[in-house]
Amino acid sequence: MNPTTLVTGGAGFVGSHLCERLVEAGHEVMCVDNFHTGAKDNIRHLLGNNRFELIRHDVWLPLYVEVDRIFNLACPASPIHYQTDPVSTTKTSVLGAINMLGLAKRRRARILQASTSEVYGDPLVHPQTESYWGHVNPIGPRACYDEGKRCAETLFFDYHRQNGVDIRVVRIFNTYGPRMHPRDGRVVSNFIVQALTGEPITLYGDGGQSRSFCYVDDLVDGLVGMMNQDREVGPVNLGNPVEFTIRQLAETVLRLTDSKSRIEFHPLPQDDPTQRQPDITKARQLLDWEPKVALEDGLKETIGYFRKLLAL
Ligand code: NAD
Ligand code: UDP
Ligand code: UDP
C-alpha cells in the first residue's frame, strides 16, 4: 500500500508541486498549511482528488494525525515575508520542527526537513559543500530565518541520535517556477512581474552578487529521491550549480519577455550573501540526481505562468 504522506507548507510554492507529484505517484497526501504565504489556489486542482486532503493548521501547535512520512516545508521563504514578523518565522521553524519531530517519533515515520542554503549565511567557502559550517550573522535581519533553520537542523539530528527518528535533511538553494507568489519579493518573481508590467527592474546593489537557480520540477525530483533512499540522513545540498549574477538574471528576463523596462538600482539589503553556488557532488552520488532544466527554459515556463496570472 502507498504511504500516507504529510506535507507541511503544502499550499506554498514548492509544497504544491510536491503534493501534486505525490498524488500522481499514488500517495495519500495530507497537506497542512496556515496560508501565511501559501494559497488555496496553488492546490485547488487537487481538492477534488480522493487521495488529497487539506488541513488548515499552524505547525506551532501540536498535530495528531496518522501518517507514515512527513515532508516539513512550512516556513515563509522570501526575505520580505520572513522579515515582516521575524519572531513568528523563528517560532515556525523551531516549534514546527519540534512538533513534526514529535509526530514522527510517535508514528515511527520518516521525516524530511526542507533546510536551506541560508544555513551557510554569507559563505566564505565557494561553492558550498555540506561540510561547511557557514558564516551567519546571528543578530541581523536574516537571522530569524537562517538561525531558525539551523536550530531546526540541530533538532532533527538530536531527535535522530536521541530518539532514533528516521530523518532526512536537504539544504535547498534558490528555487523558482510557476506558483511563486507574484509579490513575494524574491528576485525571479520580482523581475518577471516587473518586466511583464513594464515597471522598472529593481536591481539591488550593483547586481554583481550571484545566485544559482534551480527549476522547481528538478527540486521536487531531489526531494522525492532523498525521501525514498535508505542510505543517508543528510544534510544533502539540492540546487542547480550553474551560477549567475543578478544583473545577468535581469538581462535574461528582459530579453525573454521582450520588455522595455529599465533597470533601477536600489541599495543592497543588509547581510545579502554575495555569492552562492551549491556543490552537489553528494546528491549526484547518493541520488543520481542533478538538475535537468536550464535557466532559460525554466524562466520561459515561469514567464508563461505569470503572463496568465496577470492576464497579459
Ligand atoms: P512558500 O512561502 O511559498 O511556502 C511556505 C508554505 O508554508 C506556505 O504555504 C505557508 O503558508 C506555509 N506556512 C508558513 N508558516 C506556517 C505555519 N506556521 N504553519 C503552517 N504552514 C505554514 O515558500 P517555498 O519557496 O515554497 O518554500 C518551502 C520550503 O522550502 C520552506 O521551508 C523554505 O524555507 C524552503 N526553501 C525554499 C527555497 C526556495 O528557493 N524556494 C530555498 C531554500 C529553502
Ligand atoms: N507532538 C505532536 N504530534 C504527535 C506527537 C507529538 O504534535 O503525534 C508534539 C507535542 O506537542 C510535543 C512535541 O511534538 O510537545 C515533541 O514531542 P516529544 O515526544 O519529543 O516531546 P514531549 O511530548 O516528551 O514533550
Ligand atoms: N534581488 C534584487 N532585486 C529584487 C529582489 C532581489 O536585486 O527585486 C537580489 C537580492 O538582493 C539577492 C538576490 O537578488 O542578492 C536573490 O534574492 P532573493 O530574495 O530571491 O533570495 P535570497 O537573497 O534569499 O537568495
CATH fold name of the domain at 4-175 and 215-240 and 278-292: Rossmann fold
Q: Whole-Å distance between the termini? A: 45 Å
| Helix run count | 9
Low-confidence runs:
none
**Total beta strand runs:** 13
CATH architecture label name of the domain at 4-175 and 215-240 and 278-292: 3-Layer(aba) Sandwich
Architecture overview:
It is a single chain. With 312 residues, this protein is an alpha/beta fold. Helices cover 38% and strands 17% of the residues. It has helices at 13-24, 79-84, 86-107, 143-163, 187-197, 216-228, 246-257, 281-287, 295-309, and strands at residues 4-8, 28-33, 52-56, 69-72, 110-116, 167-172, 175-176, 201-204, 210-212, 214-215, 236-238, 243-245, 263-266. It has a domain at 4-175 and 215-240 and 278-292: NAD(P)-binding Rossmann-like Domain (Rossmann fold). The longest helix has 22 residues, at 86-107. Helix 5 packs parallel to helix 7 and helix 5 crosses helix 9 (295-309). The protein has a seven-stranded parallel β-sheet with strand order 3-2-1-4-5-6-11, with helices on both faces. One uridine-5'-diphosphate (UDP) is lined by residues 78-79, 174, 186-187, 190, 202-204, 209, 211, 246, 268-269, 272.
Helix and strand arrangement:
Elements: E1 4-8, H1 13-24, E2 28-33, E3 52-56, E4 69-72, H2 79-84, H3 86-107, E5 110-116, H4 143-163, E6 167-172, E7 175-176, H5 187-197, E8 201-204, E9 210-212, E10 214-215, H6 216-228, E11 236-238, E12 243-245, H7 246-257, E13 263-266, H8 281-287, H9 295-309
One uridine-5'-diphosphate binds at residues 78-79, 174, 186-187, 190, 202-204, 209, 211, 246, 268-269, 272.
